[in-house]
Design brief:
The protein is an alpha+beta fold and 281 residues long. Helices cover 28% and strands 24% of the residues. The chain folds into two domains: 131 residues, no CATH class; 107 residues, no CATH class. A hairpin with a 2-residue loop joins strand 2 and strand 3. The longest helix is centred in the N-terminal third of the chain and has 30 residues.
């Protein structure tokens, strides 16, 4: 009996191990689950591809999103033709239409990726959404594998459009010709290149002509005090287009058609240049 009892226990143990192995093999060899996992892996790749393309585009376009992309808190599907589409729990939402011949799809994505279970770019199966921190989320509207609840990637990109640069917004004064002027607010004897660099993200605009009729109004517009005098002058035999002093005096070049050069010699002590500056690109 001892021998038969030992054999029965051994048989039960062997059958248990065999059952575990069979279950493991069935899961590993389940063709449907393998296909589903492959589809989800493709979705992950497509999501990252879209995310990286958006990042590159925005870096090269001063933070602007491609035309047609205005993401919201809803899951808006990327598409190539206007339609209302469903995505997960967001129903009948206008899709984000991308021009197939536009710069974003042709140069950054080389075509809109399509979900493995979709057949047409009119409904890519991939969405954009903004989260509570206003960051852009790229995701797949559906998943296939039983182990996945959702597939998405939260980018570091923000959907807030970059502010439009204006002369006044940057602290300058725009003349009638559209040039933007800034004054040296320091005690340093700077040339125009240094003056513009002292402001945020500005560079000197060389080759700008200044004429005598608007020089005083430009200097006053930049905040220079010209209450004592504003007149033509040549300082130390060097012609400066426009300068002001700390004693409320402003002077402009005796040459009515003087040209701004960014590396023009430093003005005399206590004289400060007024210079044309542009936004750095």
């Amino acid at each position: 009996m001892n021998q038969s009892g030992f054999n029965l226990v051994s048989l039960i143990a062997a059958l248990s191990v065999l059952a575990i192995l069979i279950a493991f093999i069935l899961v590993e060899l389940d063709p449907a689950e393998k296909i589903n996992q492959s589809k989800d892996a493709r979705r992950q790749q497509d999501i990252l591809l879209i995310s990286y393309a958006l990042d590159d585009y925005m870096k090269n376009n001063n933070g602007a999103l491609p035309d047609g992309i205005i993401p919201t808190t809803d899951k808006s599907v990327l598409c190539t033709s206007a339609a209302t589409l469903n995505c997960d729990n967001s129903a009948n939402i206008d899709c984000l239409v991308l021009d197939e011949s536009g710069d974003f799809l042709s140069s950054y994505l080389e075509g809109l990726p399509i979900d493995p279970d979709k057949t047409d770019v009119m409904d890519s199966g991939y969405y954009l959404q903004v989260d509570s921190s206003n960051h852009i989320v790229v995701g797949a509207c559906q998943v296939s594998a039983s182990s996945d609840n959702s597939i998405s990637y939260t980018t570091s990109l923000t959907s807030v459009p970059p502010p439009v640069w204006t002369c006044a917004g940057a602290g300058g004064f725009a003349d009638a010709s559209g040039h933007c002027w800034f004054r040296n607010t320091t005690a340093n004897r700077w040339d125009c290149g240094q003056v513009c660099s002292s402001y945020n993200n500005l560079a000197c605009e060389s080759g700008v002509y200044t004429t005598s009729w608007n020089s005083c109004s430009i200097m006053i517009g930049t905040g220079a005090t010209c209450s004592t005098t504003c007149s033509k002058s040549t300082l130390n035999n060097v012609n400066f287009p426009m300068v002001y002093t700390s004693i409320a005096s402003c002077y402009y070049d005796t040459n009515a058609a003087s040209v701004i050069t960014c590396d023009q010699a430093d003005p005399p002590l206590n004289y400060h240049l007024v210079c044309p500056c542009v936004e750095k690109l």
